[in-house]
Every structure is written in C-alpha cells, then in structure tokens.
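Request: How about a record?
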Amino acid sequence: MKIRMGMVGGGEGAFIGAIHRMAAALDGEIELVAGCFSSNPKQGRMTGEKLGLDPERVYQSYQQLFSEEAKRSVDDRVEFIAVVTPNDLHLPVAIAALRAGFHVLSDKPAAGNLEETLALQQEVVRSERIYGLTHTYAAYPMVVQAKEILRRGELGNIRRVTVTYPQGWLALADDTKGSKQAGWRTDPKRSGESGCFTDIGTHAHYLVEFVTGERISEVCADLQSVVDERALDDDGAALFKLTGGGRGTLTASQVCGGESNNLNISIYGERGSLFWEQESPNQLQIKYRGKPKATLQAGVDCEYLDKKVRALCRTPQGHPEGYIEAFANIYRDFAQMVRSQRRDFPVQSGNCVGGIDAGVRAMAFVRGALESSCQQSSWVTLAPYWE
C-alpha cells in the first residue's frame, strides 16, 4: 500500500512544487491524494484538477486540509504533509500538521529564525510524529559515498573543509522585478532574518555536517548586501571550527554574475582528500598521498561503491542522474520511515533525511553568522544554541 501524501503550496507558478511531486512519484512508494496548493482558491482548484485529484480533497486552506483529512478513516486519510511554501509559512503549517496528527516533510529552513525553530522542535517532540527537511544535495549517491569514506576513517582526521555555493541569479537590482521566487526571498517578512545565508548557506552548512559527521561549533562571518537597497544579505563568507578539531571556510552568494548553482565541497584529511560538485554530481574525486587521483562514478553496477550508495542509484554507470533523483531519495527514505510507524514494514533509517535537530543547528549557524558579522567578524560559539 502506498504512503498517502498531502501537499501545502506548490500551485501553478511555483517552481519547487512540481519537483516535489515528480520526486515523490518516482519510486511508486507515495501517492498524492490531497492538498491546498495556493492561497488563491481558484488557482488551487486548477492545480488539483490538472493533477487529477478528487475535488473534495482540494482544500481552500491548510487548516481545512488538516481538519477534513483528520475526519477520514486511518486507512484513507493523508499520512504526511509536504510543505513546499515560501519560508514564512513553514512554521505555522508544520505546527498545525503535527498537532493534527500528521507527519511532516518540509522544505528548508524549518522556520524563519532560531527561536521559531526551537519552538518547532518542542512541537515535534510532543507530537511523536516524524519530521524531515529536504536538504536535497545530501541525497546524491556520491555525497553518501563521501560520507561513508570519512566514516570509515580512510582519510584520517579531518583537517580542513572548503564549501562554496555561488549563484548569480540575484546579481542585479532588476533581478527581483517580476519574479515571485526573488520577491519573497528578498523580503524580510517572508524570508526570515537572513537572505542568502538562510536560503543557500544552510544547504552548505548541512552538507558539511552530513558528510563529515561532525558539527560546526564556532563561526566567524562577514555578511553583506551587495545590491543597493536590498534589505537582507545576498553574499557572505564564514570561517568555522568543527567539533573534531578541523577548520573550514563556507561561502554563499547569490550575486556572482554568470554562476548557476555551483555548490561544491572539498574535505582534506591527513591521508587524503575528496571533492564533489553539484553541477557534476555523478563523480566523486579522491586523492590519497602517494597515489594517482581517482574519480568514482555513480551507477547501480559500480561494485566499488558501498551497497547503500548503489541503492540510491537508479541507472547504470555513465547514465546521468541528478536533482530530481536526489529529491526522490529523500522521499523514498521518508516513506520508509512512515512505513516503520505502520508496523507493517521493517524499520529502516532514512539516512538522507535531515531532522528537526539539523534544522535547529542550521538556524543557529545563521544566527551566529549574523551576530559575528555585526560584531566585526568576531568568533561566535554555536553549541549553546543546539546542545
């Protein structure tokens, strides 16, 4: 029996909604059965009609979605809610869904600031429901392979990490005109207390912690608004310290003219290093002392990859996979987590799904970066925020 999903957001004109739906459907594990796709009822109904949903299960508000679905039988109601709205709705939708008894899979960030995310953490604990965040880049097979290499200690102690995330789509003042995506991302009332560092800096932060298995414990940052009259940061850089003793740099910018989505990470250990970039996601480069550089390739038939990594691949070596497949890995892992609560399927760990604790640490990183930047780039300790 498929896992039944409801969706809030993702109507006509929303980029990410269609991505979520394609990813959720890719493995045949999940069925979209209900939703509130827009604050505009007419637009929401049109989206539901195009998706072939029962009109009675296309709702005018997320509150109505939760209350009406909760009245249905256990074997018919939605089991989890995908939250694909702008940032300002992540918190209220997630809390309402948890209180109504539904699991939640939300786009990042979990909420607009640290205090809201801590409040959500309490709601998740009280609800005893599953909560996940869609940090998509951690679900690429070669990122998981990198994580396994480090977990086994093949590179020795981690000494330095360099992660960069340059984009160029907000490089000019006119880039915000006529764009819904740019509009809410540059609006403090909708984006939260930070712009670029919340939007893409949290992806870079999660990638560091996911791959290394360590926590970013201190940060020294310089954030700025490059474009005149922009209220939130659109560019920033940070030094950071890891709990294992290593150090690193993290840069995130949306004003790098000519860049698309060039997230990449390098990790240096005492015996070797590795490198992965999102725009060439099927390769992982490894360098060991005294050995030739090696490039690992994703593929279901690549026996040199860990078994769990091959399970994330869908095609043979040389057949590219990308963003939607990585998203699908998150949905598949989340579906398995939901099945484990049904008690009709073996319990499996969703190792690609970020939880609420990761959401708290991400927003603690953003808060620490903001405080550091305001204090002439002094060092700020993050542990008190998430311990």
